[in-house]
Design goal:
Length: 421
């Protein structure tokens, strides 16, 4: 009992000490940036340009005469980027991965379409400031586990509570389509072997039964069917997680045939073997792990690095993600990796700004710097996709200048002063 009390007091003390920055106040006056290199997010770049925003919305962008109204900030030599968007993340749903009490991203059972990640989203997570410091200002907080994981939501990363954070509540339903064959480690040979999933038919039938029941029912009085019902009128997107070529074809074919209006595929290197099918289906792709090993033994060592560019050149709308949330602040740098393997730099930027905004259904307000859209952006001294150049000067969410001084910055300053003595 004494040990439990001591551990609780220590955890409480740590929490009090490690306070996250409080949310920024609403924008109080118009702001005009001048002489900046502006990366629109749609592939365009404006040199020595201006950007003005008021009441959280971009009012003018390009080359225009200054009206001598509002705060003018000269950004000569600096770059402006749209806020980066992290898809398929458990941000705010886990804090210490090794401590079960802080993990709230997975429910027991195989079918949980009624689970809502948004109400479990923790705005005080210590992982959030680390994301913002690298320009990640929006995220899709996503449940996982089972065959039907639940419903994700899109949040902005500067809020007091989950209600204030929500940009698009319950944006999509996440399903994990099984593979008939899967890789398992064989201890007898000390190698990875393909093993048949003998419950494959049972699992796929469970998913199909759920969608069929939801389609032909009112959903009233049944939380699970009510959570699935909106996928048939386009109110909710179905995000399919699978990394098997056969499963990609089976899942998309079934869902589109069943009348699901919006489907997004979350996958990896398996997509390369069915590129033509994905293109013909019109389904956007989220590549979940760029920094990974080859999917097959005879695959090229740089297969994962080159995948996004290959899919994009095939005419597929590609977004990039980063597994989990502990190191997902590296999102801009994995986009930079793709540039070294065949991707255009502005196309790589689009894969973490406008493309994910389209996949999440928030592109009317976010994802690119255009007149009428949200002033969600950040300013750097160099290339945002380069670990050496991505030095943030300022960041804004809906026009609010956010505090970038998180715990890591405080520790950096503390020990810089210590060892400078």
């Amino acid at each position: 009992m004494k040990k439990l009390i001591t551990a609780t007091l220590m955890a409480t003390a740590f929490t009090i000490q490690a306070l996250t920055p409080e949310p920024a106040p609403e924008q109080s006056e118009a702001v005009v940036f001048t002489n900046a290199t502006i990366h629109i997010g749609n592939g365009e770049v404006l040199e020595n340009a201006q950007l003005a925003f008021e009441n959280g919305t971009i009012s003018r962008i390009g080359h225009f005469k200054l009206a001598n109204s509002g705060q003018e900030i000269d950004l000569e030599g600096k770059h402006i980027y749209p806020g980066l968007i992290l898809t398929n993340s458990n941000i705010g749903l886990t804090e210490v991965d090794s401590f079960k009490a802080t993990r709230d991203f997975s429910e027991t059972g195989q079918s949980n379409p009624n689970v809502r990640s948004l109400i479990a989203y923790n705005t005080d997570s210590e992982r959030i400031p680390a994301l913002r410091f690298n320009g990640v200002l929006l995220a899709q907080t996503t449940p996982s586990g089972g065959l039907v994981s639940g419903t994700s939501s899109v949040v902005q990363l500067d809020a007091w509570n989950w209600e204030d954070a929500a940009i698009k509540a319950d944006d999509g339903l996440h399903i994990n389509w099984p593979a008939a064959w899967r890789k398992q480690f064989d201890w007898s040979t000390f190698s990875m072997q393909l093993k048949e999933d003998k419950k494959y038919i049972e699992k796929t039938n469970l998913i199909k039964a759920l969608f069929n029941d939801a389609k032909h029912s009112s959903g009233k009085g049944n939380l699970k069917l009510a959570a699935v019902k909106p996928v048939f009128n386009g109110e909710k997107t179905v995000f399919v997680h699978t990394n098997s070529p056969k499963a990609i074809i089976e899942s998309i074919t079934y869902l589109q045939g069943a009348g699901v209006e919006k489907v997004v595929l979350i996958t990896g290197q398996a997509a390369l073997k069915v590129t033509d099918f994905i293109k013909d289906s019109g389904v956007p792709v989220i590549v979940e792990s760029v920094h990974s090993l080859p999917h097959s033994q005879d695959g090229s060592i740089d297969a994962a690095y080159a995948l996004p560019a290959q899919l994009a050149k095939a005419g597929i709308e590609v977004s990039l993600s980063y597994p989990g949330s502990m190191s997902s602040r590296n999102l801009p740098f994995i986009a930079g990796t793709t540039v070294a393997y065949g991707n255009d730099k502005e196309t790589a930027l689009q894969m973490i700004t406008l493309n994910p905004a389209k996949a999440l259904g928030i592109d009317a307000q976010y994802g690119s710097l255009e007149t009428g859209k949200s002033a969600t952006l950040f300013i750097t001294e160099g290339d945002a996709l380069d670990m050496r150049g991505n030095i943030l000067v300022d960041a804004y969410i809906d026009g609010r200048k956010i505090d970038l001084n998180g715990q890591q910055q405080q520790l950096n300053q503390r020990f810089k002063e210590k060892y400078a003595q």
